[in-house]
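Morning F.,

Quick status update on the modeling queue. The single chain you submitted on Monday has been processed. Sequence for confirmation:
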Amino acid sequence: MPPSPLKPKNRTRLAAYRGGHRAEALAAWFLRLKFYAIIARRYKTPVGEIDLIAERFGTTVFVEVKARTAASSQTEALEAVNQARITRAAAYWLSRNPAKADSDLRFDVIFLAPWRWPRHVINAFDAAP
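Structure tokens below.
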């Protein structure tokens, strides 16, 4: 049987994969402490993946998590966020959850760096084309 294409094959990619899981778990706990309810983690669609989907006060929030080795690279990481992929995946999720389509929607980014508090950028980008 061939190896699974979803799992990384070498050590550096495996470390990055595990680090991504850790970062998403930490971001989920961070949001829970801010009274967000986590609806989904690592939501996979045919058009992309959403790291976290959360809800707070009736607002549905699609969250991209970015873990970096240095806090100074957060600006570059924000520019590297693939907004088109996230908005397409969010539209797919909304088509599967029509009850949430009428609620307020928001796209946030959480930056994580070693020995720093997580930085939560609320409404990091707009979904309008």
